[in-house]
Each structure stands twice: as C-alpha cells, then as structure tokens.
Amino acid sequence: MTSAHLSALLPTARLAEGKHSAPVTDWSGRIGWLVGLAILIALVYWLMRQGWKWRGNLQSDVPELPAVPERQGTVKLTMSGRYHGSTTAGQWLDRIVAHGLGARSRVELTLTDAGLEVVRPGANDFFVPAGRLREARLDKGIAGKVLAEGGLLIVTWEHGDRLLDSGFRSDRSAQHAAWVTAINAARPPERAAAPGTADGTARSVPPAHATTAQTAQTATTEGPAR
C-alpha cells in the first residue's frame, strides 16, 4: 500500500472514529443543578409555611367554629363539591386560615332550618346557624382561586365580630342558583344586606319623624330654608 493510499484512507478513519465517540456527560454539573433546584423549592415551601403561621397568629382572635347541633330540622338542600376557602367579606384575597378555614378540601353541604352544615373530609367541619347567614351570591374568585364567571357559590356569614365569605363549588354547578335563592330566603330579614353596601351589613335609615325634626332644627338655627 502506497503513501497515496494511506493519505486517502486517513480522513475516512477519522470520520468513522468521530461517529462512534459518545459525548462525555457532565454529571457533576447536572447533580449540582438538581440540588440547587431542590433547595429553592424547599425555601419557597418554608416561606409559604411561615407566612401561613404568621397569618394564623394575626387571626388568633377568631373564635372557635360552631359545632353541628344534634337537631337541625328539615333538610332543604344538599350539595357535594369543593371548599375553596374563606376570606374577610368583600376582600377575596384576605384569606382566613384560623381553625382550618384556609385549607381547601372536598365538602358536603347541607342546608336545614337550623343553618348551614359544612362537612369536610380531612379538615375541620363547621356549622353556620341560620341567624348568622347574611347573603349568598355567585362569583368567580376567592382566596386566590379564580374560576369562570359564576363558578363559585359565595356564602357570607357572621362569625364573632367578623363577616366572612366562604367559597364553594358544586360538582354540578347548575345547583348554585338554587342555593343562592334558598340561603337568601333563610337569612334573618332584619339582617339582610342592604343594596350598595360593601360589607354586607344593613345601612341604617333614619325614620321620617327624625328627618322632619332635623329639618325644623336647621330652619330655626340657620334661618328659613331657601
């Protein structure tokens, strides 16, 4: 074999060698990246947990949740679905976490003559007496959870000195309208929310005789009304 033949075969041999050589994997770099990602996730989880505890400490004045009474009267409606959390009424991002109210879970709702029973597998059950129900409406978001317009049943109720909004979603969303009607019919008439109030509390209106007396007093002290 001449030198000319060797010169012709050399590039072919180098090409074959390049095809069969596998790239060297930098395992140390990959492992370091995975460890860094795990540390970052753990840090974010820890910060969220600390924020949850801090919010719970701020809400230490929230009283214990009412227990379910033995006798509740006639069952009006039942619903299976999900509980999406509770917030301060009218403030959909101000989550209430005290007594397990911040934990999302499955839920079984029962509306009776006595009030609203909330049964949550794996979380704290609670009961809203009929006298503490203030309003029910359809909405799309609560406690950071956003759904389609009207996808949430929001129940406003009084707990201690607070008004709370609790969000529920039925497995059959067509049921929501019936729940709004039934809860609004079950609430005490004198405590029903007045139109236009942001906090769900009734706005006091002075009686007619009080308005007349104030007008007469104004006319006496400031002269005839113009």
Features:
alpha+beta, 34% helix, 226 residues, single chain, elongated
Q: N- to C-terminal separation?
A: 126 Å
Please count the helical segments.
4
Q: In percent terms, what proportion of residues is strand? A: 25-35%
Helix content: 25-40%
Mean pLDDT, to the nearest integer, reads 76
The secondary-structure element order is HHEEEEEEEEEEHH
Radius of gyration: 32 Å
Structural class of the helix and strand makeup?
Answer: alpha+beta
- What is the count of β-strands? 10
What is the general shape? elongated
Query: Which regions have little confidence, pLDDT < 50, spanning 5+ residues?
Result: 192-226
Largest sheet: 8 strands, antiparallel
Task: Give a brief description.
The chain is α+β, with helices and mostly antiparallel strands. The protein has helices at 3-20, 27-58, 176-186, 208-222, and strands at residues 75-88, 95-96, 105-112, 115-119, 126-129, 133-139, 141-142, 145-146, 152-159, 162-170.
What does this molecule look like?
This protein is of the alpha+beta class and 226 residues long. The chain is 34% helix and 27% strand. It has helices spanning 3-20, 27-58, 176-186, 208-222; strands spanning 75-88, 95-96, 105-112, 115-119, 126-129, 133-139, 141-142, 145-146, 152-159, 162-170. The protein is elongated and about 75 Å long. The model is unreliable at 192-226 (pLDDT under 50).
Architecture blueprint of SSEs:
Layout: H1 3-20, H2 27-58, E1 75-88, E2 95-96, E3 105-112, E4 115-119, E5 126-129, E6 133-139, E7 141-142, E8 145-146, E9 152-159, E10 162-170, H3 176-186, H4 208-222
Antiparallel strand pairs: 1-2, 1-3, 1-10, 3-4, 4-5, 6-9, 7-8, 9-10
